[in-house]
């Protein structure tokens, strides 16, 4: 069965890193909302308006992959109910198993990671205070696998692969 694998979490929680590692391991497409946002709108910021455009583009790309019979990984915050409802509709409407991986990170580590990745990451507009706010207020659903992103990347990848092999599926509506 084709899968729509969603990596969700606050900034600097490891979504892109682990999602990319898994995509390479499985040989499937991987779309990152922030990279799509910057590719479509180079001068964009983390405004709600700009992020909605990027989510729509990422979701359209995911639908194209699913419609071709492939599995796909998407990663973004997915902190708003509307984004979670949309990804559920996409999976349901395209006969794909929806798998949720939520990445958690302590505030101090997220701030440090954002500072260290500043030149190489499209989230350049994330201040320390904004990262603190996003990490502390992130609405985890606990509907899928919750990862502690302070663990080594190879360990996180193994945990995700074990979860996928277990037949992980969201038992109820992801919102």
Which strand-content bin applies to the residues? 15-25%
Structural class: alpha/beta
| CATH fold descriptor | Rossmann fold
Q: How many DSSP E strands? A: 5
| Stretches with pLDDT under 50, minimum 5 residues | 171-175
Number of domains: 1
Sheet of most strands: 5 strands, parallel
Q: What order do the helices and strands follow?
A: EHEHHEHEHHEH
Provide the helix percentage: 40-55%
Which strand order spans the largest sheet, edge to edge or round the barrel?
A: 2-3-1-4-5
Q: Give the name of the CATH superfamily.
A: P-loop containing nucleotide triphosphate hydrolases
- The end-to-end span amounts to 23 Å
What oligomerization state is this entry in?
single chain
- The CATH architecture can be named as 3-Layer(aba) Sandwich
For the CA atoms, what is the radius of gyration?
Answer: 15 Å
Can you tell me the overall shape?
Answer: globular
The count of helical stretches stands at 7
Would you state the CATH class? Alpha Beta
Mean pLDDT figure: 90
Quick overview of this protein structure:
With 175 residues, the chain is α/β, with parallel strands linked by helices. It has seven helices and five strands.
Features:
disordered C terminus; single chain; Rossmann fold; globular; alpha/beta; five-stranded parallel sheet
Description:
The chain has 175 residues and is of the alpha/beta class. The protein has a single domain, classed as Rossmann fold (3-Layer(aba) Sandwich). It is built from seven helices and five strands; from the N terminus they run E-H-E-H-H-E-H-E-H-H-E-H. It has helices spanning 15-26, 33-40, 48-67, 81-93, 107-117, 128-136, 153-165, and strands at 3-8, 29-32, 72-76, 97-104, 145-148. The chain has a five-stranded parallel beta sheet, with helices on both faces. The longest helix has 20 residues, at 48-67. The chain is globular, with a radius of gyration of 15 Å. Residues 171-175 have low confidence and may be disordered.
């Amino acid at each position: 069965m084709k899968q729509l694998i969603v990596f969700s979490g606050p900034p600097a929680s490891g979504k892109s890193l682990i999602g990319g590692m898994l995509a390479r391991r499985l040989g499937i497409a991987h779309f990152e909302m922030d990279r799509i946002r910057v590719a479509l709108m180079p001068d964009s910021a983390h405004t709600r308006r700009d992020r909605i455009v990027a989510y729509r583009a990422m979701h359209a790309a995911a639908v194209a992959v699913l419609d071709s019979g492939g599995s796909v990984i998407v990663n973004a915050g997915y902190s708003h109910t509307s984004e979670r409802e949309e990804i559920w509709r996409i999976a349901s409407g395209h006969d794909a198993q929806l798998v949720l991986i939520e990445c958690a990170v302590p505030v101090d580590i997220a701030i440090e990671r954002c500072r260290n990745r500043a030149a190489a990451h499209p989230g350049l507009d994330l201040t320390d205070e904004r990262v603190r706010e996003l990490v502390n207020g992130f609405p985890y659903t606990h509907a899928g696998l919750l990862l502690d992103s302070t663990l080594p990347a190879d360990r996180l990848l193994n945990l995700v692969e074990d979860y996928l092999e277990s037949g992980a599926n969201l038992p109820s509506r992801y919102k």
